[in-house]
Amino acid sequence: MAKKMLKVTLKRSTISRKPNQRKTVKALGLKRINSSVVKEARPEILGMINTVSHLVQVEEIKE
Question: Concatenated DSSP letters for 1-63?
């Protein structure tokens, strides 16, 4: 069974955001606007994405 992968891209700045949102963006590995990371779609990653859904863009990657 192929693992479901997600490409997460930071689209909005973390300036003047709540500290937990800033830490979540950093924990996802995003550093600056338009930076992207590929993560496995696990429950903990999906929860992190849900926390900052208004700041990021998520795409599903086909393997």
Answer: -PPPEEEEEE-S--TT--HHHHHHHHHHT--STT-EEEEE--HHHHHHHHHTTTTEEEEEEP-
Q: Which residues make Cβ contacts (< 8 Å) with residue 26, sequence separation at least 6? A: none
- For the chain, what is the mean pLDDT? 96
For 17-46, how does the pLDDT look when each residue is reduced to its tens digit (9 = 90+)?
Answer: 999 999 999 999 999 999 999 999 999 999
Domains along the chain with CATH numbers: 5-61 (3.30.1390.20)
pLDDT at 1 over 70: no
